[in-house]
Specification:
This protein is an alpha+beta fold and 202 residues long. Helices cover 43% and strands 18% of the residues.
Length: 202
């Protein structure tokens, strides 16, 4: 067996068995190679092999690392066998997450200015789910906390990095109920109803 083939099999085995994203640095150290270029070359060859043989999975770059994932079109069948119920997030929580993702880093006051309602509950929920984190404090009197998204956020939504978010102009932002906003109390206590992919209870 050639060394090239052996390295491919090692990478494939590690990513197949890993319960979470494996960084390029970890793989480089494991393979005893310098830099990320050799690892990227291996990933490219493996994905080409998977494509040529009609495999339903690929190695994807997610959240600064690598993970073996099945094609999204097979998710309905996989979910039928999934014993863990996905976490559901309310519409207000999804809205808050979107604001943090596109405007980060930003303070709670900035989130509330955009939403027009108190957002302390939704921010706490997102912190508990590890979808956002404290990234620092703003250099103004009072030093309010700044929020940003996490590596878990990237993994959940299958993003290589935050720059892979779809551009706002690509989103269909339709206001279904005009400009009317529900009250803060009703909004923050809305029932959980939207499911996130690949996110499970802690």
């Amino acid at each position: 067996m050639s060394q090239e083939k052996e390295l491919e099999q090692i990478v494939e085995a590690v990513l197949f068995a890993a319960p979470q994203v494996v960084s390029f640095k970890e793989l480089s150290a494991l393979l005893e190679v310098e830099g990320t270029a050799p690892v990227r070359a291996i990933i490219e060859r493996l994905n080409q092999q998977y494509n040529d043989s009609g495999r339903v999975f690929r190695i994807q770059e997610v959240g600064g690392g690598l993970q073996m994932r099945t094609d999204a079109k097979y998710r309905p069948w996989i979910q039928k066998l999934e014993p863990i119920k996905p976490v559901k997030l309310s519409l207000p929580t999804i809205e808050t997450l979107a604001i943090v993702a596109y405007k980060q880093p930003l303070t709670r006051a900035s989130v509330e200015f955009i939403r027009g309602v108190d957002s302390s509950y939704t921010l706490r929920t997102l912190l508990q789910k590890k979808l956002i984190r404290v990234v620092g404090k703003e250099a103004v009197p009072g030093r309010p906390i700044l929020y940003g998204t996490t590596k878990t956020f990237l993994e959940v939504f299958g993003l290589k990095n935050i720059t892979n978010l779809p551009h706002l102009s690509e989103l269909d932002m339709v206001e279904e109920e005009g400009d009317q906003k529900p009250s803060a109390e009703k909004t923050e206590n809305a029932p959980e109803q939207l499911e996130l992919p690949k996110l499970t209870e802690d």
